[in-house]
Amino acid sequence: MGNYLPNTDGQRKEMLKAIGLESIDDLYDMVPEGLVQKDGPGIPCGKSEMEVSRFMKQIAAKNKVFQSVFRGAGAYRHYIPAIVGQVIGKESFLTSYTPYQAEISQGLLQSIFEYQTMICELTGMDVSNASVYDGATAAAEAVAMCRGRGRTRALVSDAVHPDVIDVVRTYCRAAGFSMQLIPSDGGATDIGALEGMLDEDTACVLTAQPNYFGILEDSSEAGELAHRCGAKFIMSINPIAAAVLKTPIECGADIAVGEGQPLGIPLSFGGPWLGFMAATSALTRKLPGRIVGETTDLGGGRAFVLTLQAREQHIRRDKAGSNICSNQALCAMAAAVYMAAMGPGGMEAAALRSMSKAHYLADELGKVPGFGLKYQRGFFHEFVTECPPDMPAILEFLEACGILGGLPVEGGVLWCATEMNTKSEIDRMISLVKEARKRGSKSI
């Protein structure tokens, strides 16, 4: 492809030198050796459909698919109604991308409009965009929305998901914007520390509800403190938990964001998923990406238009605060179908059952020596227990039995349960934990 680029050899050498590399090949040094095509016959010949199918099945067979999952940490196994796959599997939706000749794509625009409407109902906010790439991107874009006004600093709770923190930090670094972590106390954001950190340079405060450790935060107080010094308040939420908790708008949030994967999207080895974003009407024109609006056509009928893209680089490039110009259209469609199929009652039931199963799991684990709750606080469907010394052997034994156990985190183990985990499944896992411990003690 280098032959199609207008750069001279000298210019290429200058660019490579600027990033500390010697050659173009150095750009790909992280690619495994077996995947690099060196000098030789070139790209192999194609395969037949049957050969490709056989080859892909061989690759898929290497995956370990757990039938019983007790791990979350940002990716959750929820029940997905059959209608979700049925609808998004239709050719007209499956092959559609972000509409560039928008108004002739009325069906796709309507699906985005309905998605935006349901996200607003879920969060209590006034406006939502058509989604962004994932929850971490949504949080980082929300922080970017708060830049300006002479304020140069974002405060982010260190009880927010680590991946979200990393992405926000990357965005801030690139924009010359300062990011500081609010320390946690007992697994939750330290409100006293937050109060002491707020000043006239603070642009926004970002917390999660529930947070990375599953704990239910005092979001209202965090929002009140942020507003007191003129900062914006951003809440990163779990959309299933949002069905039973106070909405972000009720907590005083200016922007609500989150990972939409729990809304009818399978785990899929980590993606693709979607990030949802919603805000108050005062911030409408600062929302990145695409927003679909409702209008009427020449005949007075209901119609939809792609509108309010003022922040995008192809509209006002010199003033753009974001380079997001796409959205996860298919994933947003899946989330919309899921929310429509479940309805408020169904989502509330999923949330309450998830919380009930998690508390039962915590109670039963607590009866096993070394697995007491690390944080004595209210939680939704995730919690952290102490981490006994034999935890690696226990997790290995559980995996051999087809169970994905908790995630080791600093100072403990993060467990999760959803409506998918039955009582008998939980009881079996507890008995296997005890058995693993007995086996370990015999081998000593």
Describe the protein in words.
The strands form five sheets. Strands 2-10-9-8-7-3-4 form a seven-stranded mixed sheet, with helices on both faces. It is built from twelve helices and 16 strands. α3 runs antiparallel to α10. The protein folds into two domains: 108 residues, Aspartate Aminotransferase, domain 1; 257 residues, 3-Layer(aba) Sandwich (Aspartate Aminotransferase, domain 2), CATH 3.40.640. With 444 residues, it is an alpha/beta fold.
What distinguishing features does this structure have?
444 residues, Aspartate Aminotransferase, domain 1, seven-stranded mixed beta sheet, alpha/beta, 36% helix, 2 domains, 12 helices, Aspartate Aminotransferase, domain 2
Can you count the beta strands?
A: 16
Structural class: alpha/beta
**CATH homologous superfamily caption of the largest domain:** Type I PLP-dependent aspartate aminotransferase-like (Major domain)
Indicate the overall shape: globular
Number of domains: 2
Binned, the helix content reads 25-40%
Note the run of SSEs as H and E.
Answer: HHEHHHEHEHEEEHEHEEEEEHEHEEEH
Q: Tell me the major beta sheet.
A: 7 strands, mixed
CATH topology group of the largest domain: Aspartate Aminotransferase, domain 2
The CATH architecture assignment of the largest domain turns out to be 3-Layer(aba) Sandwich
CATH class identity of the largest domain: Alpha Beta
Mean pLDDT: 91
Q: What's the multimeric state?
A: single chain
Strand content: 15-25%
**Uncertain stretches:** none
Question: How large is the radius of gyration?
Answer: 24 Å
Task: Count up the helices.
Answer: 12
Sequence of strands across the biggest β-sheet: 2-10-9-8-7-3-4
State the separation between the terminal residues, measured CA to CA: 60 Å
